[in-house]
């Protein structure tokens, strides 16, 4: 059994017979009364997000999770298709479950697909990825006199991020996938 003081972001627990993923949590110790844990949970079966509060020390059934390396093949409308690199089996995952991660993934990229109790539930990408800038305004000389600045750039996957003024089209940059922020040139 897992206690509330063992919670970690990304962990899976069973609540009322439903498998939930912990998006974020906060331990709260009010001046009066018992401590409690405020959580934001994503229901695995439909992707809905709920806020729940638990008493400190409450116990939950841990859920068996496994991560497998898979190759992204293509998008088929409301499903995303992946292939297992070991045995070449193809699986489909609802596009809305993988939406956050898929904006960072190009066809043929390798990703980690998370399986919860033997069914695929989520796509995990690296915390930082390298992508090519396909569209951005040119930086003008003198723009950095005040110590920097940023401009909008569109990456090859279609995501828009803020980059320093010296970045030009065609450059490969490293982006933090959790915050969608520019990290460095690749």
Q: What can you tell me about this protein's structure?
A:
This protein is mainly β and 186 residues long. It has three domains: 2-62, SH3 type barrels (Roll); 65-124, Nucleic acid-binding proteins (OB fold (Dihydrolipoamide Acetyltransferase, E2P), Beta Barrel); 128-185, Nucleic acid-binding proteins (OB fold (Dihydrolipoamide Acetyltransferase, E2P), Beta Barrel), CATH 2.40.50.140. It has one helix spanning 95-102, and strands spanning 2-3, 12-15, 18-28, 36-43, 49-55, 59-62, 65-76, 79-84, 90-94, 110-116, 119-124, 128-136, 150-155, 160-164, 172-176, 181-185. It has a six-stranded antiparallel β-sheet with strand order 1-6-2-3-4-5, with no helix packed on it. Strands 9-8-7-10-11 form a five-stranded antiparallel β-sheet. A hairpin with a 5-residue loop joins strand 4 (36-43) and strand 5. It starts with a strand and ends with a strand.
